[in-house]
TrEMBL record:
The protein's name in its UniProt record: Saccharopine dehydrogenase
SUPFAM superfamilies: NAD(P)-binding Rossmann-fold domains (SSF51735)
Superkingdom assignment: Eukaryota
Residue ranges constituting the Saccharopine dehydrogenase NADP binding domain according to the UniProt record: 69-175
Family per similarity comment: Belongs to the saccharopine dehydrogenase family.
Keyword Membrane: yes
Gene3D superfamilies: NAD(P)-binding Rossmann-like Domain
Length: 465
């Protein structure tokens, strides 16, 4: 089997090197650059923000709110799976679903009633458009937590986050748009502190496995080695696919230039909660070759497209939890052979023109890429898994290795699980959460409470040799 895979990957490698890469280099790369520049210079409709700096006067105390959780974006690919998870695992949860389309939300209720018949009568629907302030207010003021799957968040998340901050409503999402996260931290952190709203971004495959594994390594390094954790480098063994919503978010990031100008004078991810000061922690990425050999695993590794996003979340966690004032983070993806690593990298290069070059996106892209709301099949997701093995090094040279696992598709099915658990933890476990209002990460807010829940529902984490 391994031999067959090696031969197949070698043949693909030859085709890529002899035919595909020259076409990419001479034609697709120039087109991608040209359309990237054009899209960045083109005047796009800029996202709107609510200028709010005071807590709502009609705020309902958390304990008196009707719902524990509202899933906003319940008709989308991941949102629907998060609803399915809650329907199966939390029959007593007080929850509702929200979105723009009443008919589509009714279809979701009908589907969920096949899991739990009580939901047909008991699951409320909330109609709320991303830019309708009054509709969003009605949604956020009567729930403890909003779990949002509505992206791109840069385009559709601003009003919702602002109103959650104003009404003291906790919030989680799936965003990988770190530039947007920086903007909303700068604009609304002080308001979240005033109202008590805990805002926790990137609560799916991006970036909970990586953020919580780093937290776990830090605690084990302190406990077992009596040292502070100074660096983490991780290797992903995984199988996952992309949905149309994810690709739409990537396209939005690549083609829209924000007009927002920061006034902080420093990276918002380093901002101390509720203060106009920055953490003194210094953070750097550890970069390895795009393709290489990992002696620790005796396997080849390749580029991790998620490293920059995951690393920035770890950066935020380090700023708030103070792992080390000179912290480093990096990650790669494990491959069965060197040809697989190279082919995957070349595949990423080929994907960019399909997302950016308009004629290609509207022709070839429409034929082979999923549309928003679409995603991998159940059969494809059944193949999915994640094993993230991270090597942590202490300030005095000690070393520990931890492995975090997700048993099924990490990009969507298991993302739905950990996203739901993230929101439910904010709703039901406030007596165990030590922080107050502000903008956090999963490690710095729900922390070990969430890690324990995730491990009780399918994942594992442990120190390995």
């Amino acid at each position: 089997m391994m031999g067959d895979n090696l031969i197949v990957q070698f043949v693909i490698f030859l085709v890529n090197i002899v035919i595909v890469f020259p076409i990419w280099l001479t034609l697709l790369l120039p087109l991608t650059i040209a359309f990237s520049v054009y899209n960045r210079l083109k005047k796009h409709k800029q996202p709107l923000f609510l200028e709010i700096d005071s807590v709502a006067t009609d705020l309902i105390p958390q304990q008196d709110r009707k719902y524990d959780v509202v899933i906003y974006g319940a008709t989308g690919f991941t949102g629907k799976m998060a609803c399915e998870y809650i329907a199966k695992q939390y029959p007593k949860l007080r929850w509702a679903i929200g979105g723009r389309s009443s008919s589509k939300l009714q279809e979701v209720v009908k589907h969920l009633s096949g899991i739990d018949s009580n939901l047909e009568k008991n699951l409320d629907i909330i109609i709320a458009d991303s830019y309708n302030v009054e509709q969003l207010k009605k949604m956020v003021q009567n729930t403890k937590v909003v779990v949002s799957t509505v992206g791109p968040y840069t385009a559709y998340g601003n009003y919702l986050v602002a109103l959650c901050c104003q009404y003291g409503t906790h919030y989680t999402d799936l965003t990988g748009e770190l530039d947007w996260v920086k903007v909303i931290i700068e604009k609304y952190d002080s308001l979240a502190v005033k109202s008590g709203a805990q805002i926790v971004n990137t609560c799916g495959y991006d970036s909970i496995p990586f953020d919580l594994t780093t937290l776990y390594l830090n605690e084990q390094m302190n406990k077992q080695k009596n040292q502070r954790l100074k660096s983490v480098y991780g290797y992903c063994e995984q199988y996952l696919n992309a949905s149309g919503g994810t690709l739409a978010s990537v396209v939005y990031i690549l083609t829209h230039k924000s007009s927002f100008v920061s006034k902080l004078g420093y990276d918002a991810l380093l901002k101390n909660i509720g203060e106009n000061t920055q953490s003194k922690s210094n953070f750097k990425f550890t970069f390895k070759f795009l393709v290489g050999y990992a002696k620790e695993f005796k396997k080849f590794f390749g580029l991790s497209v998620g490293m920059l996003g995951n690393g920035q979340i770890v950066k935020r966690s380090n700023a708030l939890l103070h792992y080390h004032e000179d912290f480093r983070y990096g990650e790669s993806v494990i491959h069965p052979n060197i040809f697989s690593a190279i082919n995957t990298f070349l595949g990423i290069l080929l994907l960019l023109p399909l997302l950016i070059v308009t004629p290609l996106k509207q022709t070839i892209g429409k034929l082979i890429l999923p549309n928003p709301g679409e995603g991998p099949s159940q059969k494809e997701m059944d193949k999915g898994f994640l094993i993230f093995t991270a090597i942590g090094k202490g300030e005095n040279g000690a070393e520990l290795k931890a492995a975090f696992t997700m048993p099924t598709d990490p990009g969507y099915r298991d993302t739905a699980r950990i996203l739901a658990e993230s929101g439910i933890t904010l709703a039901l476990n406030q007596d165990q959460i030590k922080v107050k209002g502000g903008f956090y990460t999963s490690a710095s807010c729900q922390g070990n409470i969430l890690l324990e829940k995730i491990c009780q529902t399918g994942s594992t984490i442990q120190i390995v040799q």
